[in-house]
Q: What sequence folds into this?
């Protein structure tokens, strides 16, 4: 058994919050560069600005978007690990420290009173128990321009693959410029309502440019991406060939009577950073 102190968790979460908000992952900037090289006119100019903005924010360690999001935290906990202290409290303390010390906007409010919680907590924490004696933390700040445009469909089994594709394309086209394109479309197919939504969100962490390992899903990803990019919504909605950088799909078994499909929209600020303890 390995003991992890809560102070180590606080530091890891704090640093990952700041890094995620200021430094876009290399696969995202590569995808934006590739998109820029295929565009002309306004679309190209917008992508140039997004890339310049990403470079400046990484150099100055300032957030690449004013909306520094709600802190979604994925924790893969080795089953040989024992925590000294309160794990949930440590994660929230890390988020609070990261958002204060990194001068990141505190965007979290009480759902009904709309009173700001003051430190961007609580984190949205997704825990998975895995073999081993380490802890893997991934922080994915989620802006709500794109989150608001996400959807869950409870399709009938008869709607099948065609229904799934239509749901994905419809969500992306309805999102239009509101989701700050071009970003990633995460899709979770199967499970229950909430399992499909979490599966969709996990797809936003997948490396860009790497299709699903399942040939059937890889084919569906390519078809959905092509249909979305034919819409001419383009970067930031100013028209162009690039409305999405990628569609990432995953599936899991579901009930005989249903076909849940969750579509989680992600903007061009496709941010995440990880720490392993
Ligand atoms: S949706 Fe993304 S790019 Fe748009 S304002 Fe929110 S975080 Fe920023």
A:
């Amino acid at each position: 058994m390995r003991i992890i102190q809560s102070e180590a968790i606080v530091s890891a979460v704090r640093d990952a919050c700041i890094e995620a908000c200021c430094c876009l992952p290399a696969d995202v900037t590569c995808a934006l560069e590739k998109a820029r090289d295929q565009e002309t006119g306004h679309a190209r100019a917008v992508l140039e600005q997004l890339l310049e903005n990403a470079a400046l924010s990484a150099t100055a360690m300032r957030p690449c978007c004013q909306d520094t999001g709600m802190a979604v935290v994925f924790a893969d906990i080795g089953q040989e690990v024992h925590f000294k202290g309160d794990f949930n409290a440590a994660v929230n303390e890390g988020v609070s420290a990261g958002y204060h010390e990194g001068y990141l906007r505190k965007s979290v409010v009480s759902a009904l009173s709309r009173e700001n919680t003051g430190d961007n907590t609580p984190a949205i924490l997704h825990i998975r128990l895995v073999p081993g004696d380490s802890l893997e933390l991934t922080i994915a700040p989620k802006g709500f321009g794109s989150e608001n445009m996400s959807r869950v469909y409870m399709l009938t089994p008869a709607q099948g693959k065609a229904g799934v594709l239509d749901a994905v394309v419809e969500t992306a086209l309805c999102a239009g410029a509101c989701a700050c394109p071009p970003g990633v479309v995460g899709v979770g197919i199967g499970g229950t309502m909430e399992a499909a939504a979490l599966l969709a969100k996990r797809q936003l962490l997948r490396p860009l440019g790497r299709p699903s390992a399942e040939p059937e899903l890889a084919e569906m990803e390519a078809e959905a991406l092509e249909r979305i990019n034919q819409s001419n919504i383009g970067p930031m909605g100013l028209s162009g060939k690039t409305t999405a950088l990628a569609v990432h799909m995953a599936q899991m078994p579901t009930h005989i009577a249903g076909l849940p499909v969750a579509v989680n929209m992600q903007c061009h600020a496709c941010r995440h950073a990880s720490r392993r303890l």
About this structure: The chain has two domains: 2-20+64-142, 145-270. The longest helix spans residues 41-60. The longest strand covers residues 244-254. The domain at 145-270 is CATH 3.30.1330 (60s Ribosomal Protein L30; Chain: A;).
